[in-house]
Design brief:
heterodimer; A: alpha+beta; Elongation Factor Tu (Ef-tu), domain 3; six-stranded mixed beta sheet; 22 strands; B: 127 residues; alpha+beta; six-stranded antiparallel beta sheet; 4 helices; 9 strands
Chain lengths: 366, 127
Amino acid sequence: MGFQTPLYQKHLDAGARIVDFGGWDMPIQYQSLIEEHHAVRQHAGVFDVSHMTIVDVDGPDARRWLQYLLANDVDKLDVTGRALYSAMLNEQGGVVDDLIVYRREVGYRLVVNCGTREKDLRWMNQHASGWQVQIQERPELAILAVHGPESIDKVCALLAPALAELVRALGNFRSLEDGSWFIARTGYTGERGLELMLPGNDAPALWDALLQAGVRPIGLGARDTLRLEAGMNLYGHDMDESVSPLAANMEQTIAWEPATRDFIGRAAVEQQREAQREGRLPILTGLVLEERGVLREGLRVVCQVNGQPAEGIITSGTFSPTLKHSIALVRIPALATDCQVDLRGKLTPVRIVKPNFVRFGKKVFE
Amino acid sequence: MSSFPDNLKYAATHEWVRVEADGSVTVGITDHAQELLGDIVFIDLPTDGASVSAKQEISVVESVKAASDIYAPVSGRIIAINKALIDSPEVVNTSPYGDGWFCRIQPADAAELDALLDADAYARICE
């Protein structure tokens, strides 16, 4: 038996199939992954993501320390509540983890991956010596992600009117706090929605109220197809410590200016940028297969670079329930053309597209 | 809970077989198999008219999560395939023992049927 979130019994009650996910007993799906996927694209669904790790960072040096720890610059968080996506790099410019950091009234809140929890906490503590910061994990908090076109209305209908008004007014990548509840307009689906961090004891009642209001419970299976349709990376698959953020479609998340800001991995990632300018760094991009078949993680992709044969590899692949054909993220040489995927020994042509397949329920690539 | 109808025979590779009145057999994948695969999105059907040997790959099922080979439970000739699965592969999820059948085989050697598992024996290997 693994760790269980405060909603474990609720998942069983809803008929979930439970799997081990990074040491946690989590729902992979309830009845049908595809129906759950469509519920989020068309209506509203709720995910229990309480297995993810919340870390609050506080203290006089919190801002300057995060500017050192993260490749993105928390100075962009000009107002309380604003959120930022960032990589945490090692000295070699590899990705230790990806995370979201929120600016709070006092200090910051980071949400990091479940599978990297121990490594991340060790990394943060190791790099905190000499800084006046407090790094505090918040395991007592549950996280519910409610996403889909109807999600914000469904949540707001359950809140006190004054709070609901504030939540409705939240812009994308903004958050607010109400007592021990933290409510953010962030997510991992490509739809509008909220992530609610709240005391574990409050979570079952909120879960019940959402289901009562017609919000569907969504398992981690549909979470993966939704994030891949949205072209979002999954740590440990699309990038890891051996991969440059520039080879993981994360260039926009590195704050190069001001040039005087020293962050961990800066020197390495600047060299990687030179390599990228000379075409020596691979890219992470999108693939679509419009005929039958499913692109899978680990499949080999053969291509051409300036008339020479070259290779790449699929880092995430699935069937897209929205598009009704397969999509994937692939790491291939820059300037690769004429891609074919090795599908069970048969080379099948695939098309390179921008790695963003579906937003707000609609196809977005040409 | 998966269902294991008593009137069927089973292969350890998760195919089921139903012996028809004319001596042919209908073949599909079990409820347990469709549960493990999850939502099925593509099926490459067996080739109609082909001669097959027991344990030979005859079909491929792709779900959102995984691809899985389907094997002939007995040797013989494929005399019918369920073309409805090409456009509606999800029927295998909703009706694995009914409308989700894959093919019918005219067995070359009826004795091969005796080597298959009964419902109890198959249920035990699924535990």
